[in-house]
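Weekly puzzle thread! Below is a chain. First person to post its structure in token form gets bragging rights.
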Amino acid sequence: MKIVKLTEEYLDGVLKIENECFSHPWSRQSLENELNNPASVFFAATENSEVIGYIGMSAVIDEGYIFNVAVTENYRRKGIGSALINELVTYCRKNNFAFVTLEVRESNRGAVSLYSDFGFIKVGERANYYRDPAENAVLMTKFF
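Winning reply:
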């Protein structure tokens, strides 16, 4: 497994993961727009040139706002998510971010635990943030 900066050559793989993992996946156009946005940062986990996971974030001055962290089902629980989060946290440290934050489904205990392992703490909730199914979001932030 290798972590690389996400480029357009990997978009088809990211779209496949988006459609597999999310009830409201990003469109190709939305992904292209963010990939070309100088304030956005994306990394992909690849194996044999196939995208097996990705992470994306928007940077606002010294603040990071994670869009998505996703790993294809066949590669879950193999450290891919950890490697992606580690890459992004390292990027934030090197670039002197004050914090990086995200929302996660309240029921996604595995993700909450993973983020906690990286020093993210619960800082709030958003009622009925998610749809299909409706669910609260837990806001988690890592301060540097």
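Puzzle host: Confirmed. Bonus trivia for everyone else. Residues 13 and 36 are 17 Å apart (CA to CA).
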